[in-house]
Amino acid sequence: MSAEGAGPGPQPGPGPEPGSEPGPLCPEHGQALGWFCDSERRPVCAACAEPGGRCRGHRIRRAEERAEELRNKIVDQCERLQLQSAGITKYVAEVLPGKNQRAVTMASAARELVIQRLSLVRSLCESEEQRLLEQVHREEERAHQSILTQRVHWAEALQKLDTIRTSLVGMLTHLDDLQLIQKEQEIFERTEEAEGILDPQESEKLNFNEKCTRSPLLTQLWATAVLGSLSGTEDIRIDERTVSPLLQLSDDRRTLTFSAKKSKACVDGPERFDHWPNALAATSFQAGLHAWMVNVQNSCAYKVGVASGQLPRKGSGSDCRLGHNAFSWVFSRYDQEFRFLHNGQHEALGLLRCPARLGVLLDLQTQELLFYDSASGTVLYTHHAPFPGPLFPVFAVADQTISIVH
């Protein structure tokens, strides 16, 4: 009810029961707090609730009504808590044991799956190892047999040449002029026979063929083992002295960003590329196995690979353009076209997806350069050829940015 126009104000409620302690009193009027003001959300006395009191115009009701309302809310809350407790008890007693059992069952099945699959991988690796070792042995035997055959052949040739020489020397020593003239036909035949024995020539049949160890499966597993984890990669940084004026180098020297306008801040020097948007790493390699990863997902035009230190830096000719000379070997992307480039030869690569991270693996012991898509675990391209050392990681970007990952 509203205190205004309500007739006489609230009458004082009954006093405290005999023997009970008096409740708190209104600090303003010293009367019992027998009423409740909904507007101020607090108990008030009868004087506060009168039309002229501080709670005039407020909704006023007896304190016991408010207390009864709170008791009902507490009862409702207790019932809800009881139901919630019952639900939790049932969940703990019935659901969690089932979840636990299912977790144990699924973990056991997962272990079996891991063991089964790795067992198959091990079996496949062992079979591939056996096959390749047998192939190496057969190639060794073939080369050995070819060398033995050559030894026999040239031993016979030496013996024949020695016989011919001995015969010719005998004629020269023991025959007089007339006898020598009479032996002219025999001399001619002996000479012709000797000329028929050719000098030894280089033959690939006498060399061990290293291609016998090449295996797509082994290459895939090897590349994944090295590049599947960044722990196996080198800490490659860009040599800022080589960075083209068309590129911006990050402070950590790992990110190259293309700019259509040449930077005027670049100080020209003999190491700097002055036309093509190229850059070399500060590190070079002459031996061993080396790997690095490049984030290329933001660029639609880039080149990544290796280059000899002899790569020219000045001018717009092909001798400075990556992949268009004998000094650079690169994986190239331009829009949706992917290629391997070297010495002006372009080999198109039919990729189904654009690699986000491009791994580069350089094995100078086997003279092998490999490009790898880390997301799919796919070897994109492998190049075998003698490399002139030292080799530098090389980069070019003509769209957005590329970054060396470490």
Automatic annotation (TrEMBL):
<dbReference type="Pfam" id="PF00622">
    <property type="entry name" value="SPRY"/>
</dbReference>
<dbReference type="InterPro" id="IPR013320">
    <property type="entry name" value="ConA-like_dom_sf"/>
</dbReference>
<feature type="region of interest" description="Disordered">
    <location>
        <begin position="1"/>
        <end position="25"/>
    </location>
</feature>
<dbReference type="GO" id="GO:1990830">
    <property type="term" value="P:cellular response to leukemia inhibitory factor"/>
</dbReference>
<feature type="compositionally biased region" description="Pro residues">
    <location>
        <begin position="9"/>
        <end position="25"/>
    </location>
</feature>
<dbReference type="InterPro" id="IPR006574">
    <property type="entry name" value="PRY"/>
</dbReference>
<dbReference type="Pfam" id="PF13765">
    <property type="entry name" value="PRY"/>
</dbReference>
<dbReference type="InterPro" id="IPR050143">
    <property type="entry name" value="TRIM/RBCC"/>
</dbReference>
<dbReference type="InterPro" id="IPR003879">
    <property type="entry name" value="Butyrophylin_SPRY"/>
</dbReference>
<feature type="domain" description="B30.2/SPRY">
    <location>
        <begin position="216"/>
        <end position="406"/>
    </location>
</feature>
<dbReference type="InterPro" id="IPR043136">
    <property type="entry name" value="B30.2/SPRY_sf"/>
</dbReference>
<dbReference type="InterPro" id="IPR001870">
    <property type="entry name" value="B30.2/SPRY"/>
</dbReference>
<dbReference type="InterPro" id="IPR003877">
    <property type="entry name" value="SPRY_dom"/>
</dbReference>
<protein>
    <submittedName>
        <fullName>B-box and SPRY domain containing</fullName>
    </submittedName>
</protein>
